[in-house]
Amino acid sequence: MDPCIVDPEAFAQAGLPDARPAAAARTLLPGAVLLSRYACAQSEAIAALIDRIAAAAPFRHFETPLRGARMSAAMTNCGEWGWTADRRGYQYCARDPDTGRPWPAMPRAFSDLAEAAARAAGFEAFHPNVCLINRYAIGARMGMHQDKGEPDLRQPIVSVSLGCPVIFQLGGMTRSEPAQRVLLEHGDVFVFGGPSRLRYHGVLPLRAGADPLFGAQRINLTFRHAQ
Ligand code: SIN
Ligand code: FE2
What we know:
The protein is α+β, with helices and mostly antiparallel strands.
């Protein structure tokens, strides 16, 4: 069985601490590459950096243009730009709309990790200037969407998963195409670019669990090159 396709037993074990070494890159679809456990060794350092970022730019639940509904994932950003949403739409802003201050700088450890992961997935010249940090409590989800607000679509998206495991849905170029389910566990890095850059994607509601480092939540870092 393809280890990426979810089977219930693998899911039950997925919350356990995982000391296995990073696995080889696996291409799920052209341009969509899973680097299992790639970020495990750095997860404690990343957790400390997230705390520092969130102290300056606190997590918040953005309102959306969809009748003002709030997103279930809490978000913050670091980098030159930050992804934001409000009733008018989605946009990258140089300043945190909640504080009026620039977003915290992207730590070098973040950009080094994202660039190295992109290279390992076959994308040589990735220069992230945004890191959107999503925090999912149990039950939080993200509906199917495309990441298409970035003008240079040659740059991939690099997505780092930490904490509780989740089922990621990797769809097609239209909303109606069926999605494959990919289990993303602590430390996994998923890169999508090239022919997969505009694939629809989302995550199913986070199931109850407890990660030794992150507790009952999942953190996702998405690195992008915006503007
Ligand atoms: C996103 O698409 O911004 C987040 C996906 C994820 O949480 O894995
Ligand atoms: Fe996305």
